[in-house]
Write a structure and sequence with these properties.
The protein has 6 helices and 2 strands. With 167 residues, the protein is mainly alpha-helical. Strands 1-2 form a two-stranded antiparallel ribbon. α3 packs antiparallel against α5. It starts with a strand and ends in a 46-residue tail after the last helix.
């Protein structure tokens, strides 16, 4: 069996030769499936504008099914769905138009200065509590562990330990 070409838009495969592929890619069904796929990723503003320009599909709204599907020239959106889409678009546009306060944003230097003033004024600075490393019970019986498996303790770390940037 030779190579097969799979078209994800049409969800079908066929023998992969240039003539068959060209025939498939130029077919109306493939073009329709391609357009339908990318219509799923349209901007909500554009969808709302297009759906409001269409008249409602009577068959889809009464029966709940339309023979033309996504290719129908009428709108398959109910008034409730259009309202929700409008609400979503409004919320999206409102988040883009965040209003900056009159005096601007707080100065980062003032925030840092305030933070350090508050921490310096507190005299009850406690020593940080570092976690202690315990040797798991399973390894207690193995006295000849390699150094890479020894538990880390403050005593096992060298005094002149420095951490450099990793490159």
């Amino acid at each position: 069996m030779g190579k097969r070409y799979y078209c994800a838009y049409c969800d079908r495969s066929f023998k992969d030769d240039p003539e068959a592929r060209k025939r498939h890619l130029s077919s109306l069904q493939h073009a329709k499936n391609h357009v339908d796929h990318y219509n799923m990723y349209k901007d909500p503003d554009i969808i709302l504008k297009e759906e409001r320009a269409k008249t409602p599909c009577k068959r889809y709204l009464t029966i709940g099914d339309c023979a033309f599907g996504l290719g129908c020239k009428f709108s398959h959106y109910t008034p409730q769905m259009l309202w929700e889409l409008q609400y979503y678009v409004d919320m999206k546009n409102a988040s883009k138009l965040r209003v900056v306060p009159e005096n601007g944003w707080p100065n980062p230097d003032d925030i840092i200065k305030e933070y350090f003033e508050n921490t310096e004024s507190s005299n009850n600075m406690e020593e940080p509590n570092y976690p202690t490393w315990f040797k798991p019970l399973e390894v207690h019986d193995y006295s000849m562990l390699p150094p890479s498996l020894w538990p880390i303790t403050p005593e096992s770390l060298p005094d002149n330990l420095t951490f450099n940037k990793w490159v």
